[in-house]
Write a structure and sequence with these properties.
Shape: globular
CATH superfamily: Glycosidases
Mean pLDDT: 81
Distance between the termini: 35 Å
Largest sheet: 8 strands, mixed, barrel
CATH architecture: Alpha-Beta Barrel
Number of domains: 1
Number of helices: 6
Length: about 300
């Protein structure tokens, strides 16, 4: 079952390919971006007569249809995330100076360790995704964790209850997402930290919880340790998460190298369905500004306004 806001809207898609994508003074090459738009937006394109210009084999999207949507960024493009969402000014500096095209932001959940988020608001999201910076965003929700962990908030060992809890968490994340102005089509990532994945009952509970989470969101994602969070186990959830975000800090941004024998991920989520956190937190400097971040890469979905 999908949320009503998800189910009532018919969608269509088209492909937008930039040989290079300019962001302020920074140019990023070789990114293939697949945009999905409401059918109503396509009708609006027809009514406006010329909202798409086809030149030199590229399809350019005019500002008139550059609405926020789920997009797929391919090619192991680079990004970053941090527990505390940086200020608008800090992200502007990095947007102008760094090679990063997306940023992971934590938006809520009972186990989010960075309460409060002093910068997080609808105006903040708008400021970092439009105007002088067009960050793509990968939102994270940190709710209850696996029942075999010592976290204060855990979901149930009972798989039926765990499924219901996952669905409820998705509703909470959705409501927060809407309050931040991101709408109903955001790829939402559940942060499920590592647990004892040798405990079959715990894995079954996690699978049921993720199934509940994925039953609500069209673009459901799970973030976690490639091995420790049992990511491969969720391939047998029903429904299956649309994408994964694997924590695999080997220093290599290639999302395909999560396919080691221990992870069990070979052949899973390979159709533009992966994000990867390829470092642990480290101090990184761009534009003279140092921030402590995890470094990430992407061959998968994010929320974004494409640049005009």
């Amino acid at each position: 079952m999908r949320s009503s806001a998800e189910s009532l809207t018919a969608w269509t898609g088209f492909t937008n390919v930039w040989g290079s994508m300019t962001r302020g003074t920074q140019k990023h090459t070789g990114l293939r971006i697949i945009l999905r738009r409401r059918r109503t937006a396509v009708v609006a394109c027809a009514l406006a007569i010329v909202l798409l210009a086809i030149t030199g084999g590229y399809i350019a999207v005019t500002p008139a249809v550059a609405r926020a949507a789920e997009i797929n960024i391919t090619g192991n493009a680079l990004g970053a995330d941090a527990c505390v969402d940086p200020s608008v000014a800090h992200l502007q500096t990095w947007y102008d100076a760094s090679p990063y095209v997306f940023y992971g932001i934590y938006i809520g959940g009972d186990e989010m360790g960075c309460h409060p988020q002093p910068n997080l608001s609808a105006s903040y999201v708008n400021a970092i995704t439009t105007g002088t910076q067009y960050w793509a965003l990968a939102p994270l929700w940190v709710g209850p964790q696996a029942p075999c962990t010592s976290y204060a908030n855990t979901f149930s060992y009972n798989t039926s209850d765990a499924h219901s809890q996952g669905y409820s968490q998705a509703q909470d994340a959705y409501n927060t997402d809407v309050s931040l102005g991101m709408g109903s089509r955001v790829p939402m990532n559940y942060d499920l930290e590592a647990f004892d994945n040798s405990n079959a009952s715990c894995v079954a509970a996690a699978r049921a919880f993720v199934s509940g989470w994925s039953a609500f969101f069209v673009y459901s994602g799970v973030y976690g340790s490639v091995v420790g969070s049992a990511l491969a186990a969720y391939a047998s959830s029903s429904p299956v998460p649309q994408h994964i975000w694997g924590a695999y800090p080997d220093g290599n941004p290639d999302t395909s190298d999560m396919d080691n024998s221990a992870s069990g991920l070979s052949g899973l989520w390979v159709e533009t369905q992966r994000l990867k956190q390829y470092t642990t937190p480290e101090n990184v400097t761009w534009g003279g500004l140092t921030m402590n971040v995890d470094l990430d890469s992407i061959d998968g979905p994010v929320y974004a306004y494409p640049p005009s």
